[in-house]
Amino acid sequence: MLTVRTVRNSLTVVAGVALLCATTIGVAEATPPGIPSAATAKSDLTALTVQADGSLTGYSRDKFPHWIDQGNNCNTREVVLKRDGTNVQVGANCYPTSGSWESPYDDATWTSPSDVDIDHVVPLADAWRTGASSWTQAQRQAYANDLSDPQLIAVTDNVNQAKGDKSPDQWKPPSTGYWCTYAKMWVAVKYKFKLTVNTAEKSALTDMLGRC
Q1: When comparing pLDDT for 8 and 173, which is higher?
Q2: Residue 112 reports pLDDT greater than 60
Q3: Among residues of the chain, what percentage have pLDDT more than 90?
Q4: Which of 15, 19, 76, 169 is exposed most, by the fewest CB atoms within 10 A?
Q5: For residue 49, what pLDDT is reported?
Q6: What is the dihedral of CA 21, 176, 32, 148, to 10 degrees?
């Protein structure tokens, strides 16, 4: 869907003076693949095993090797930046040289890839606590670089950092209009990878899916 947003921090020079102004451009909201319908998400949520989260003992992001080579000189992050951006141009090393990215978490639009993080919708640490601690390294690598499901999305960097490894009972996107989609993505990932949910998490997801 093409929407119009305001890009912050655009610079205009008038009579030799740099002025901070806003530029309005058309941008496409990031849309990962495989987002289920609300009905499917609600059904899949009831099928998830409900139990208390496990321990973080032994966890390390290094146990989820990510941003691996995806061919054509591109790593996973660069593939998602190209997928989720608008008019993205890349150099020979696949790093974007121009483009814009709308973060659906907070409805902000950015024109520098350094302002954009690639979020693991279900964070790596959450996955560890809910089943991934027993996976092989190869399984965790596949999870951390999953381009086939709604697990990776380009969003505002500081919003992603505020989220950290929190589940939906602890953190939700600032844009309430995205809660339905976020819950659908979260459930889809947990269902695909057979991860568990705790009671508070399931309650929050049920409420968010009720907005659909």
Answers
A1: 173
A2: yes
A3: 85
A4: 15
A5: 98
A6: 150
